[in-house]
Amino acid sequence: MNAKTMSVRESEIERRWYVVDATDETLGRLASRIALVLEGKHKPTYAPNLDTGDHVIVTNAARIAVTSDKLESKLYIRHSGYPQGYKEETLGHLLARRPEEVIRRAVKGMLPRTRLGVQQLRKLKVYAGSEHPHQAQRPEPLT
């Protein structure tokens, strides 16, 4: 009996490219599917200390769907650190201004808050329209 645990090496990690059409997809459900692929949890070689995930391209980010009244009630809040530096923006306003940022922030919240999570988030490419410049990578549709 072999009692050794197999750990994948950095050179053995195979990265693939996936494309996702965000048209009429619910924001949270789409973000959780994307985060799963970015982390590599869909692979049998998943390791929590290694970046084994794949690249994800999201198109049509401007046509994302949200439920209930989240367009008016969901707030994105930040503070500059200075007096009166509090800024808040609704989901509807951010979706109209920068639709890519809505999906990026949703996925970022589902990734680890470490250097590994930052590395995984770099593999996410989000575009507001249906065109993307990654045709050379031959991306497959994400199911």
Sheet of most strands: 4 strands, parallel
User: How much strand content do the residues show?
Assistant: 15-25%
Approximate helicity band: 25-40%
Radius of gyration (Å): 17 Å
**Span of the ends, CA to CA:** 37 Å
| SS-derived structural category | alpha/beta
* Average of the residue pLDDT scores: 96
Q: Numbering strands along the chain, what is their spatial order in the largest sheet?
A: 5-2-1-6
Q: Low-confidence stretches at least 5 residues in length (pLDDT < 50)?
A: none
Total helical elements? 5
Count of strand segments? 6
What is the overall silhouette?
A: globular
Topology pattern, helix = H, strand = E: EHEHEEHHHEE
Structure characterization notes:
- With 143 residues, the protein is an alpha/beta fold.
- The protein is built from 5 helices and 6 strands.
- The strands form 2 sheets. It has a 4-stranded parallel sheet, with helices on one face.
- The longest helix has 13 residues.
- The radius of gyration is 17 Å and the shape is globular.
